[in-house]
Amino acid sequence: MQDLTTWTNAIRHDNLGQVLKSYWQLTKPRIIPLLLIETAASMWVAAHGQVDPFLLLITLLSGALAAASAQVINCIYDQDIDYDMERTRHRPMPSGRVQARDALLFAIVLAVLSFTLLTTFANLLSACLALSGIVVYVLVYTHWLKRSSSLNIVIGGAAGAIPPLVGWAAVTGSLSWAAWVIFAIVFVWTPPHFWGLAMVIRDDYAKVGIPMLPVVVGNEATAKQIWIYTLLLVPTTLLLVYPLGVAGALYGALALGLGSLFLKKAWQLLQTPEDLTRARSLFKFSIFYMMLLSASLVIDSLPITHQLIALGQAQINALATAFACL
């Protein structure tokens, strides 16, 4: 503890710019864009490709504020282990640039702003869902599971699957089966996504006693779990096409193509689970996968896409009729 005190007393802000930078870093901004992409995709599907631009802006802003609040609280809670890991000890909390009291106040302000914006400009359901995302991430994942169970990312990963529910509720004021399927897609995608990274930084987690799956069971067993979850992911994505029918052939084809690539990555890792280059590659591809899958949902939902597909089908039918008459 003396070393931690010495370290935290060593760094101070010199100007306002450094203060703002530290608080920005507390929110872990690199994590947030993917959550917003998932939210936007859900909104487009819920609105049948015609989203109110103002509602979209408010929902994404509120979602960013809620995610930022959760990450700030995570930084407060994990500052002890962040200090012990070389890759994280320069973060604002363990380095002493931001004190816990100030960070907690910042997190509360972010959460209140998120809840207020959604309640005022969307609806209470979406606001409560965003708030529940913070609670699940902080209490279920960070406080309860992260330091106690190798299932931490499986159960706690539900927090990362809540943003699509927020987006759907913001548009419709309710939650349909389609919304829960999008939730399930993100939920099933999260373990193979995160475990790929956990395999790469396994030693860091082991050093601070965090029971991430690769630390507890090793890389070979983790690679098997990644393979199983990826196998589950592909058919889950197709539920939006059948039986729900909220996505069409374009999304279905892209989901199959992206899923096949994900399965290939997972299979390659399964064959050589100690190859950390492949683990890192799978992790990076998983981000690319979710971004493109979300984009394909948006494109598939657009009225112009439906018109073009209908036009193409009409042309094909006309050609088939012409050939039949020959």
Automatic annotation (TrEMBL):
Pfam families xrefs: UbiA (PF01040)
Family indicated by similarity: Belongs to the UbiA prenyltransferase family. Protoheme IX farnesyltransferase subfamily.
Enzyme class, UniProt record, top EC level: transferase
Parts of the chain that traverse the membrane: 54-77, 98-118, 124-144, 151-171, 177-201, 213-234, 240-262, 282-299
UniProt keyword terms in alphabetical order: Cell membrane, Heme biosynthesis, Membrane, Transferase, Transmembrane, Transmembrane helix
Localisation: Cell membrane
PROSITE patterns: UBIA
Catalysed conversion reaction: heme b + (2E,6E)-farnesyl diphosphate + H2O = Fe(II)-heme o + diphosphate
GO MF assignments: protoheme IX farnesyltransferase activity
Role, per record: Converts heme B (protoheme IX) to heme O by substitution of the vinyl group on carbon 2 of heme B porphyrin ring with a hydroxyethyl farnesyl side group.
Domain of life: Bacteria
Enzyme Commission identifier(s): 2.5.1.141
InterPro entries hit by this protein: Protohaem_IX_farnesylTrfase (IPR006369), UbiA_prenyltransferase (IPR000537), UbiA_prenylTrfase_CS (IPR030470), UbiA_sf (IPR044878)
Record protein name field: Protoheme IX farnesyltransferase
Pathway: Porphyrin-containing compound metabolism; heme O biosynthesis; heme O from protoheme: step 1/1
Topology of this chain in the membrane: Multi-pass membrane protein
Misc: Carbon 2 of the heme B porphyrin ring is defined according to the Fischer nomenclature.
Principal location: membrane
